[in-house]
């Protein structure tokens, strides 16, 4: 049984159809990356899984239990096993609470009265390589990287089975980014936790994700193992995204494939293939609507795939 | 040299704080030539932002210019009157900020803001409007005439950043400062912005001082690179020299840390262990010593000078010093 199973998730805000049928699953211990442009619905997907965004249709099952639209009474005990790392590290920490209160808040919320919070705070800070005297600090006294690590400590406090991480390394310096990813990797190996990670840094995806899905306008257009997607992308959009990654080498040969225009408005979804108007490889057949097809674990929504 | 536009000469800047003086910049020296794209790379807290605000003289009240000069077309910007500085800002030196979502006034149309920014110009309103239309078109906004009537929220993040660039270039400045203009954008938009900047730079011949911590972007866009660490320049040189033959251990480690460098999946990503030193309480000797795996005895006591290793390539490290002087 998959740890997390998302089937045909639909979210609309009024007339704006943000997610139009997103399906994927995550196995225990697996890291799944969601990538796509701003506005493609990445954040909405994981917020909907955590019950923080509405989802009008579809199903989200966690360890076999249906949780889409579940009331807080059902969600709260589950949040022990499913933790969220928010995008804005400083903004996600209450400015009036000390780091000790922030990272031990999960125990209080879950009513774990038997825990000694000072000991737990110390243990968690050590786990994320922060000095233990940071327990008495307030969020404004932390750097961005330190605030991230507090976010990680808080997400891991209850030893969840799944972490939903929204841009966990955005805005971090490269060396700090490496530290954080190593930490997550290490914890994954030791605690066996699974992760859904959102990022637009493709270099990061390559190093942390087992499988990845590419979102475009609230729909998956391609999915597969990280290796397959990087080596043999078949959807033109994936190809464009991968080719846009600037390399730290001034002489890198760039076979860059430019995307045409801007993402279309969600209020007026294009007919046929929704990527058609921006696609450098579009053909006549693309005026028809492509179906999601899976072939040997590689999912694709394209009528004129690249070979 | 006649083609030098901006010369930062031995610039040292302090912030007065309750804990004592924080030495935010120490002995910064580098040039930007006319029409050149110079990248400044370094991690958080290395002094990039202090440097920019010093050039524009838009510094916090507790800033103290301890030493040095910032010469723009030969005149020291730290000595000129505030009035003169106002004339330079926006006209000769302009800036694109990091966050495109907060750069524009949300209650005015883009057109109004693009007219307002031309307040110095004596042209008629119709001409100003035409100029605004032309600039929007130049940064690749389709249907610019109609788009002028729209408000910032009607544009995507990438478009807003391109509009910010259009506005910064309206007065045809000699120097454009771009402060992490692509950090808030995703990879496809990042590429759009870089390519647009390159095109515009060729068209308007302005020099660009491009600040970023994204090495990929620096490698792609810049002619020369200045690497900063903890308020000091540790290395500067031609972009190829910096990326292919870095001479300072910090530059080397920084490049190694970029996961874009590793083609195969790595179990453990390289990092630079340790922390940046406290700028209010600087250690003696080399500032990178505590994190450097090649440190010599000398590094603990003496600050390494920024030596010229070859034409245009400088590094501040004792490892290269012998080579440079012998």
Automatic annotation (TrEMBL), chain A:
PROSITE patterns: ABC_TRANSPORTER_1, ABC_TRANSPORTER_2
Pfam family, one: oligo_HPY
Molecular function GO labels: ATP binding; ATP hydrolysis activity
Highest taxon above the source species: Bacteria
Keywords: ATP-binding, Nucleotide-binding, Transport
GO biological process assignments: peptide transport; transmembrane transport
Subcellular localization, as worded in the UniProt entry: Cell inner membrane
Assigned GO CC terms: plasma membrane
Record has Acyltransferase as a keyword: no
Topology in membrane: Peripheral membrane protein
Keyword Cell wall biogenesis/degradation appears in the UniProt entry: no
Domain ABC transporter: 4-242
Family, as annotated: Belongs to the ABC transporter superfamily.
Name used for this protein in its record: Oligopeptide transport ATP-binding protein OppF
Automatic annotation (TrEMBL), chain B:
UniProt record similarity statement: Belongs to the ABC transporter superfamily.
Protein name (database record): Oligopeptide transport ATP-binding protein OppD
ABC transporter domain segment(s): 6-255
GO aspect biological process, one term: transmembrane transport
Gene3D superfamilies: P-loop containing nucleotide triphosphate hydrolases
PROSITE patterns: ABC_TRANSPORTER_1, ABC_TRANSPORTER_2
Keyword terms, alphabetized: ATP-binding, Cell membrane, Membrane, Nucleotide-binding, Transport
KW Transport (keyword) present: yes
GO cellular component, one term: plasma membrane
Domain of life: Bacteria
Entry-linked SMART domains: AAA (SM00382)
Topological relation to the membrane, as annotated: Peripheral membrane protein
First and last residue of the signal peptide: none
GO molecular function: ATP binding; ATP hydrolysis activity
Keyword Protease attached: no
Subcellular location: Cell inner membrane
């Amino acid at each position: 049984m998959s740890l997390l199973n998302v089937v045909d998730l639909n979210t609309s805000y009024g007339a704006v159809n943000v997610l139009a049928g997103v399906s994927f699953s995550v196995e225990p211990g697996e890291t799944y990356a969601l990538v796509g442009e701003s506005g493609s619905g990445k954040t909405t997907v994981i917020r909907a899984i955590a019950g923080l965004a509405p989802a009008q249709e579809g199903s989200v099952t966690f360890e076999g239990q249906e949780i889409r639209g579940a009331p807080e009474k059902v969600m709260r005990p589950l949040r022990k096993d499913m933790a969220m790392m928010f995008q804005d590290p400083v903004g996600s920490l209450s400015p009036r609470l000390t780091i000790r209160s922030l990272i031990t808040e999960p125990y209080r919320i879950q009513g774990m009265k038997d825990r000694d919070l000072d000991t737990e705070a110390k243990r968690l800070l050590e786990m994320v390589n922060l000095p233990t005297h940071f327990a008495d600090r307030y969020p404004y006294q932390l750097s961005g990287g330190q605030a991230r690590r507090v976010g990680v400590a808080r997400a891991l406090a209850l030893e969840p089975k799944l972490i939903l991480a929204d841009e966990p390394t955005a805005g971090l310096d490269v060396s700090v980014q490496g530290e954080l990813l190593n930490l997550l990797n290490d914890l994954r190996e030791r605690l066996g936790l699974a992760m859904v990670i959102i990022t637009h840094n493709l270099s990061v995806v390559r190093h942390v994700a087992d499988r990845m899905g590419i979102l475009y306008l609230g729909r998956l257009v391609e999915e597969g193992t990280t290796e397959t997607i990087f080596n043999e992308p078949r959807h033109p959009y994936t190809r464009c995204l991968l080719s846009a990654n600037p390399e730290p080498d001034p002489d890198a040969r760039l076979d860059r494939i430019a995307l045409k225009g801007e993402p279309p408005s969600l209020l007026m979804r294009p007919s046929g293939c929704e990527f058609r108007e921006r696609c450098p490889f579009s053909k006549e057949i693309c005026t028809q609507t492509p179906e999601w097809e899976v072939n040997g674990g590689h999912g694709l929504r394209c009528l004129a795939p690249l070979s | 040299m006649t083609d030098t536009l901006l010369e930062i000469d031995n610039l040292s800047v302090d912030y007065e704080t309750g804990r004592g003086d924080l030495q935010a910049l120490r002995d910064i020296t580098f040039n930007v030539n006319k029409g050149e794209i110079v990248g400044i790379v370094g991690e958080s807290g290395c002094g990039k932002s202090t440097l920019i605000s010093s050039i524009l003289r838009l510094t916090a009240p507790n800033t103290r210019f301890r030493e040095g000069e910032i010469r723009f077309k030969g005149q020291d910007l730290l000595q000129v009157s505030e009035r003169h500085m106002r004339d330079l800002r926006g006209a000769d030196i302009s800036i694109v900020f990091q966050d495109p979502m907060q750069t524009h006034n949300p209650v005015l149309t883009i057109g109004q803001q693009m007219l307002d920014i031309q307040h110095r110009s004596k042209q008629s309103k119709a001409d100003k409007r035409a100029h605004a239309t032309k600039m929007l078109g130049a940064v690749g906004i389709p249907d610019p005439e109609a788009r002028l009537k729209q408000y910032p929220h009607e544009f995507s993040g990438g478009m807003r950043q391109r509009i910010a660039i259009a506005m910064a270039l309206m007065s045809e400045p000699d120097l454009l400062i771009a402060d992490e203009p692509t950090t808030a954008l995703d990879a496809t938009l990042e590429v759009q912005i870089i390519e647009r900047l390159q095109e515009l730079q060729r068209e308007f011949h302005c020099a660009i001082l491009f600040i970023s911590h994204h090495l990929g972007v620096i490698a792609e866009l810049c002619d020369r690179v200045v690497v900063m660490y903890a308020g000091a320049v540790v290395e500067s040189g031609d972009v190829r020299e910096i990326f292919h033959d870095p001479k300072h251990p910090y530059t080397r480690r920084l490049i190694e840390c970029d996961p874009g460098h590793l083609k195969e999946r790595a179990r453990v990503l390289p990092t630079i262990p340790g922390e940046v030193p406290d700028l209010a309480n600087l250690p003696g000797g080399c500032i990178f010593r505590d994190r450097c795996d090649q440190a010599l005895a000398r590094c603990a006591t003496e600050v390494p000078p920024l030596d010229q290793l070859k034409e245009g390539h400088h590094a501040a490290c004792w490892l290269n010093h012998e080579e440079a002087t012998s």
